[in-house]
Each structure stands twice: as C-alpha cells, then as structure tokens.
Design brief:
The structure is a single chain. The protein is α+β, with helices and mostly antiparallel strands. Helix content is 12%, strand content 25%. The radius of gyration is 13 Å and the shape is globular.
Length: 84
C-alpha cells in the first residue's frame, strides 16, 4: 500500500475558492467515498505532516484530528491532486 505522495501545497490555488479547496476522502481498499469537504492551507499542511486527516471543528475556529475523541481516525495513504 502506498504512503502519502509528496504534494506541493504552493502549487494549489486556494484563492479560487476563497481560501478553500475541495477534498474527497475515500476508503483505500473499497474506494467508497467517506466524506467531501473543504480545507485551507493550514488544515492540508497538518494532514500531510501527520498523515492523518484533519478538519475544522466549531465553525472553522479550531483544527481537529478526525477521530481524536472517537478513535475512528482516518490515516492518509495517498494524496492525488486534480490540476483544475
């Protein structure tokens, strides 16, 4: 199984979406879509560094590790970028 590919955050256009870009999270075995959301540069950087998904909590005032309290974390195995 592949581990995270190197992603150049500086090559992504966050301004196009008012500082946010859409992300789709899929199960790496079944390819079932688990979630569709938006991240800013900070959340994406934290996800890439930790290799676990992070989201905004409390109306975008706090970045939180997905599953921190429930234990249902999402380990990032691969990141693919669409050039659009």
């Amino acid at each position: 199984m592949k581990i995270i590919k190197r992603v150049d955050i500086n090559g992504l256009n966050f301004e196009k979406g008012d500082g946010l870009i859409p992300v789709i999270v899929q199960d790496c075995r079944s390819f079932v879509v688990l979630s569709l959301g938006y991240v800013d540069r900070e959340v994406l950087q934290k996800t890439l560094e930790s290799k676990y998904t992070h989201y905004y909590k409390d109306s975008r005032t706090q970045v939180s590790l997905k599953g921190k309290t429930s234990g249902h974390v999402q380990r990032v195995m691969e990141v693919l970028v669409n050039c659009d």
